[in-house]
Design goal:
Layout lengths: L9 H5 L8 H35 L2 E7 L5 H12 L1 H7 L3 H24 L15 H9 L17 H9 L2 H13 L33 H7 L13 H5 L1 H19 L1 H9 L15 H4 L8 H6 L7 E7 L9 E7 L18 E7 L15 H13 L8 E7 L1 H9 L4 H4 L10 H19 L7 E4 L5 H25 L1
Parallel strand pairs: 1-3, 1-4, 4-5, 5-6
Antiparallel strand pairs: 2-3
Helix pairs in contact: 2-19, 3-19, 5-6, 5-8, 5-11, 15-18
The structure holds guanosine-5'-triphosphate and magnesium ion (MG).
Length: about 500
């Protein structure tokens, strides 16, 4: 069949078949042209596949969001522990100083409580290294901002033995100071801010009060740590490497145990409803193991170690196992305090998934940065802001109702949900009913705030339990990956 030729178009004329083409020549020419088209289509298809593969190779980007102490960093550590063992192993030794610091802080908190009870409350300047004053110590230790220390009616029967313990454990003040200097500002917990701030990341001050951190800065700082402001003569190699900390802890081991196990002090804690076991970075039951000269942190220690996150920290690792083996993941762990939330916003572009942590045991607690705000209420407000956020409209959001273990303990100890959440009413005060109730509330908020319909994914988690968390992460990993690949194909 002949082809029509546009005689005014030079290209058309150039590729036009010769006017005197024979039948055989035409068949041969058409064969050549068909082959050329096949090769060209094949190249196009290869390019398309390569482009799709390139998009699929884009790292899976996940944001961990939630208020301070909700368990974001702990969840990130679970991801590393489960899927990126190499990076985990490389980091392990850096955590030694954090665990030591947590233990020393626990002991200094006990010493503060004992001093106060002895009626010899040291002025604040005497204990610059203890980052909590007594009321704050109570709050942090009890996990409840409403708990004030009872001015005990009868003074606790402390003896000379307690005064001696206090003196012998005195060097731990300096050790806490040294570790704080090594670990940077993340080592100090939040204190109430004077300016009032709101829950959402958009209505916070434009300039976040905390700076951006694009890598694990404290680990680098720890490696390069050089103390300053000290007379050269006092500096030793041991001080620089942290060996003096290990040495002092090993020397104080028996005294630390004696303090923690002391029945008089235990009684004071009980009477004042101070639950040290529920506080962040609790290591008092591990003194025997940690306060030794050859201590190396276990996986469990690293997961439980507490260091506040400043700004936004970026973690890039290649998953070694699982369905995404070989795939690169980019995870952002953020500081959760109200004053840090404005720093999250620049990271909302191109996110595959948000894991939102809400510490469900905190229904009776107040925010450290604003003692007027109930922590559950803050989580609801923040959840609403994140669900309603337009740049995240098409992003998968996964809710972790975390600290289920603490919720169990709290309810078992007799704390009533309805005393803090009146709308809970006369429902049964058990974990199943409470979690179902809270979950429903989060679901409703999401439904009302999502800019467009979005599935509601929720998991009940105890992030410090690495085994159960690994099972949750496997489900989460699959869901995130499926979404990631679907997006890559669509783009
Ligand atoms: N008992 C218990 N403790 C938990 C759980 N999840 C986290 N923690 C502890 O709670 C503390 C705070 O956890 P982090 O992961 O540091 O909290 P975060 O959300 O990263 O907090 P910021 O960095 O301040 O925003 C740590 O001491 C954790 O060990 C949990 O499910 N149960
Ligand atoms: Mg953190």
């Amino acid at each position: 069949m002949g082809r029509s030729i546009d005689v005014d178009d030079p290209l058309s004329l150039a590729i036009a078949p010769p006017a005197n083409e024979t039948h055989e020549e035409r068949i041969a020419r058409e064969k050549r042209e068909a082959e050329a088209r096949r090769v060209s289509d094949e190249i196009d298809e290869m390019l398309r596949q390569e482009r799709a593969a390139m998009k699929k190779r884009r790292p899976v980007k996940v944001l961990l969001l939630g208020q301070s102490e909700s368990g974001k960093s702990t969840t990130l550590k679970n991801f590393q522990l489960t899927y990126a063992r190499k990076a985990w192993a490389e980091d392990r030794s850096s955590w030694k100083a954090v665990v030591q610091f947590n233990l020393v802080r626990n002991i200094n908190t006990l010493l503060d409580i004992m001093s106060r009870e002895m009626g010899t409350r040291a002025p604040r300047s005497d204990s610059p290294d203890s980052d909590l004053d007594y009321d704050e110590a109570d709050d942090a230790a009890a996990g409840s901002a409403d708990t004030d220390m009872n001015p005990s009616t009868a003074p606790a029967p402390f003896t000379e033995h307690h005064h001696v313990l206090k003196l012998r454990l005195g060097p731990l003040r300096r050790i806490q100071e040294e570790l704080e200097a090594r670990l940077g500002s993340g080592a100090s917990e939040l204190v109430q801010t004077s300016s009032s701030t709101s829950a959402g990341p958009f209505d916070s001050p434009r300039r976040p009060q905390e700076f951006y951190v694009r890598s694990n800065n404290w680990k680098t700082a720890l490696k390069n740590f050089r103390p300053f402001g000290r007379a050269e003569g006092r500096r030793s190699k041991d001080f620089d490497t942290g060996e003096d900390v290990t040495e002092v802890l090993a020397t104080c081991r028996e005294d630390m145990k004696a303090l923690w196990e002391d029945p008089v002090l235990q009684d004071v804690l009980r009477k004042n409803k101070i639950r040290m076991e529920e506080s962040s970075g609790f290591f008092l039951n591990d003194i025997d193991r940690i306060a030794t000269r050859d201590y190396e942190p276990s996986d469990d220690d690293v997961v439980r170690a507490r260091l506040r996150t400043l700004g936004v920290q970026e973690y890039r690792f290649v998953f070694e196992i699982g369905r995404t083996a070989g795939h690169e993941w980019l995870m952002y762990d953020v500081g959760g305090a109200r004053t840090s939330r404005a720093a999250w916003v620049p990271y909302f572009d191109d996110v595959d998934a948000v894991i939102f942590l809400a510490p469900i045991s905190a229904f009776d607690e107040k925010l450290a940065e604003d003692k007027r705000v109930n922590r559950l209420e803050d989580s609801y407000l923040l959840w609403k802001a994140i669900c309603g956020c337009k740049p995240l409209a098409k992003t998968q959001i996964i809710l972790f109702l975390n600290k289920i273990d603490l919720l169990e303990k709290k309810l078992a100890s007799g704390v009533k949900v309805k005393d803090y959440v009146p709308s809970f009413g006369d429902r049964s005060n058990d974990v199943a009913t409470a979690t179902k109730y809270f979950q429903q509330h989060f679901r409703e908020i999401a439904k009302q705030s999502n800019p467009e319909p979005r599935p509601f994914f929720v998991h009940l988690t105890t992030a410090t339990d690495t085994k159960s968390t690994a099972a949750t992460l496997s489900v989460v990993e699959e869901g995130i990956l499926r979404d990631h690949l679907r997006r890559a194909d669509l783009l």
